[in-house]
Amino acid sequence: MPPYGMNGRILWVDLTRGSYEVKEVPEEWYEKYLGGNGFATKILFDLVKEKIEAFSEENPVVITPGVFNGLPVPTGGKCQVTSISPLTGTFSDSTSGSPIGAELKYAGYDGLVILGRSENPVYISIRDEKVEIKDAEDLWGKTTHQTQDEVKKREGDPDTVVAAIGPAGENLVRFACVDSDHRQFGRGGLGAVWGWKRLKALAVRGTKSLHLADPQKALELLQKWTKVMRESSAYRDDTQYGTGEFLEWMNKDRGTFPTRNWQEGVFEERQKIDPYYWAPKYSIKNKACFGCPKPCGQLFVIEEGKYKGTALDGIEYETLFSLGSNLANPDVEAVAKANLLCDELGMDTISTGGVIGWAMESYERGVFTDDDTGGIKLTFGNPDALIEMIKKIAYREGIGDILAEGVKRAAERVGKGSEEWAVHVKGQEPPAYDVRGIKGMGLGFMVSHRGACHLKSGVYALELTGKFWKFEGVDRLSAKNKGYEIKEMEDFMAIYDTLGVCKFSRGIFLLDNFREIMKANLGVELGESELLRIGERLNNMKRVVNLRQGLTWKDDSLPKRLKTLPIPKGPSKGAVITPEEEEEMRRDYYRARGWREDGTVPEEKLRELGII
Amino acid sequence: MVKAIIGHPEKCTGCRLCEISCSLYHHGVSNPVLSYIQVHRKGVTVDVPLTCTHGEDCGEDFCMTVCPVSAIDRDENGVVKIDQDACIGCRICYQRCPMHVIRMIDDKAFKCDLCGGDPQCVKVCTAGAIEFVEIGEKEMEQIKRTKELVKEVF
């Protein structure tokens, strides 16, 4: 019997055969993996027994609602798409606040697994028990948003939730994303896996009820926690300015805001990309993820000028870096336009900015000529070049065909020393934390199971402020004793991912706060240590999948630039992670995890965690 | 004066906690389809909370008027309510409601009853996008604006 609030069913779709099957969730899965991201982990662990290619029939695409999706849990609306990434070759789970997770729950499922490959473009339509694979030939080529609008019309219900890829996914851009309701499963190139499978979109409509253990108590808790969130200090920051609220602080107080392809840690011309400047001017209202009473989303609208008519849910902190500071681009309207283009064409803004930053440096160093760029002046601070490049990448035109491979493969292909300034971990371009001055986050980047990522460990705030949860006195400029910190935070965040809770609630919900929420909603009581145990189990399973994919300890490393070029100016001037520090942090982390020195996982560990 | 809930699409974030609260309070489950308040989204710019105006600006489609068996009436507080015992499940009110907020459950019509004077949906809306208020001129304008948006969404 599934817990209250869950369905006990996972839908399996085979695109090769054009068939589907509903399977019961095995009883023990709830206790061991909880649900959501936990189920996705177990499914990949079971299916990926030896190395597989991302572009293959056997690569599963797993879509899972967070355990709390669709339940009265404020900020409990996050869901994931998980697969083997074409960018990193690793286990790659991407999170979004799209309502599609909740809708899947309301349709009666706790997950959706897609295998195989369709002969022709299709979209999957799920309406409660009614599952159909429908022709999408005439949708191929449309943007993510055009596709969603059209599919909603075809499904005949404006409340249908749709997820779709755009031309970038169709053209197998290695960092193509999936857009759903103007939110993105951004990272890892999962949109390209959909594209390879010729899966254009997923449409879900659910009309069933989720039954709770104690509905009255659950309603009380919804009101209680909504009030806590409304009265928190985070409320103003999140709603008024969005995720970029701390951008100025990152520059002025910490000097760890990556700039100009990671050449620097402070962006001098940041005034116009600072939300304190642009939100009052361009933001019309907030946009929320499903179930969030403190929405950070800004409805950014440009009403006149060169980019008139641009309207998007943005601009997020990461994109202010990737399409802004990383390209030395202070033109916020151009950043907004570029952001919208990425969303419409279906590309991760972080990787897009990462690879374009590399390309701009390559151009300035003479590695690319005007012939290579098709006449575009690919210089830092040129917003027109940015916009042109995005289109070229999505359609793999000219130099876009190289850039579409991601910075790692592009640099390998181009050579001429350009690997020196190709910044990535395991092939994934890093997010907006200059880890030279945030060393624990550097370890987080090194060992994250999906390549450079700030969310899997989520230690950036802890490192930058010095304290969070049970950690205190943390020194961002020290590489000492970071192993246990990153290990524990990864286990903590694995629970957030699995329950489907937004990480911006981390200051409000410590793991013990979930006890009463889980009891009222699911009829299950778990405390912090039990939850951390599950998180540890999941992180070890992800590690095993990656080892099967051929990862070694060498891949748990930082790019050359972050080990050889100290931050030149600002509050973190002189900061760099030395090779010795890199090695120390890696060893420390393996020790904390109970792994061998070569980064492999001993059988005893797997048995201890009940994985085998 | 009639007191009802009006929606402010210009503030609505689309979080839908109102829907969960309503279905939970009235039906003991989490299911937006059973909620008497619904948020409809279109593109990135439009989030419309549709609420029952308890007769304000319903015109000839007012459920109380169109019900063939007079199962819908105002109580002593002016709240428009459906008597499920008298309801014959003909669905006329469901089809005519200009805000699309009548629900059919097991062949009976259900609607917003303002939760006995303390609406649950309003409690969880942090955006100020739903307001429990006496319907005056300003509120009527808001209702009319919302109905224009309804045409866009459906």
Give a structural overview:
The complex is a heterodimer of chains A (612) and B (154). Chain A is α+β, with helices and mostly antiparallel strands and 612 residues long. Chain A folds into three domains: 9-205, Aldehyde ferredoxin oxidoreductase, N-terminal domain (Aldehyde Ferredoxin Oxidoreductase,  A, domain 1); 242-359 and 374-410, Aldehyde Ferredoxin Oxidoreductase Protein, subunit A, domain 2, CATH 1.10.569; 435-558 and 578-608, Aldehyde Ferredoxin Oxidoreductase Protein, subunit A, domain 3 (Orthogonal Bundle). In chain A, the strands form three sheets. Chain A has a six-stranded mixed β-sheet, sandwiched between helices. A six-stranded mixed β-sheet of chain A has the order 8-7-12-9-10-11. In chain A, strands 14-15-16 form a three-stranded antiparallel β-sheet. In chain A, a hairpin with a 2-residue loop joins strand 10 and strand 11 (183-185). In chain A, helix 12 runs parallel beside helix 15 and helix 20 (483-499) packs across helix 22 (528-548). With 154 residues, chain B is an alpha+beta fold. Chain B has a single domain (3-153), classed as Alpha-Beta Plaits (2-Layer Sandwich), CATH 3.30.70. Chain B is globular and about 40 Å long. The interface between A and B is large, with 46 and 37 residues.
